[in-house]
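Most newcomers find our protein records easier to grasp once they have seen one. To make this concrete, we reproduce a full record directly below:

…
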Amino acid sequence: MLILDAQIHVWKASTPERPWPADAIEPQRPMPLEVPEVTSELTRAGVFGALLLGPTWEGSRNDYVLAAAAAAPSRFGAICRWATGSPAEAERLADWRSIVGMRAIRMSLNRGDVLGALTAARRSGFFAAAERFGVPLSVYAPGRHDLYRDLAEEYPGLKIAVDHAAVETSDLPLAEAVAPLAGLAKYPNIAVKASALPCFLDLAAEARPYPSITEAVYRLVEAFGAERVFFGSDLSRLPVPYADLVDVFVSHLSGLSGAERALVCGRGVAGWLGWSEAFGE
């Protein structure tokens, strides 16, 4: 089975030559998660490849993830940061396919002036350009299901992946937390990353193989179809062993057919992004 992880943050330490922003938030762990460590984790867990994303605390940098994707295009793809409020940067999207290894753009809308960021992206022409030039977006806007709905309706040709199933806390049982996403399934331009799910569990009350994750994935597949639900880890903050999470998707989704599991585990996200190199093409 082709297994692809839909999101892993990678970053390097802040140095005078490559400094982080002065107002950087605390990273998810003290030691940077770099590509060699990710490669080892993938190999041990039987995962073929991953989509890499620079974290917000490193700033709007793409150099590290793009270098990794360019060096191993069948194994790594880059989800890039973009100046979405800049008209000039919106125009640059016309040539995005020439950026080797780039697969999508991430918008982090989980803190700060979310409404202002959306307004700026509309005014700059970013959303319209992304739709016109076929740039997939990965958007993290936990709990803001109306935001996803509005974008899907306004830009019906724009592919939008809902990062981390739009969940941010463990306040609700996981299956209940993902349930509102079913209302978005009618929009064919919306997909869901079933990523970082162990982060939203009460791990004191639930052990491997984490049946809440299985139940949540079933709900998502029932609503969206397996081709629009993507396995992902968010490895840098994962509170369980990586191989254990992979095992949930490989061995504990017996309610799905083999073809459906293959889509959820990697073929779906590769098809969604047009990542033909992952198929050896």
The radius of gyration is 18 Å.
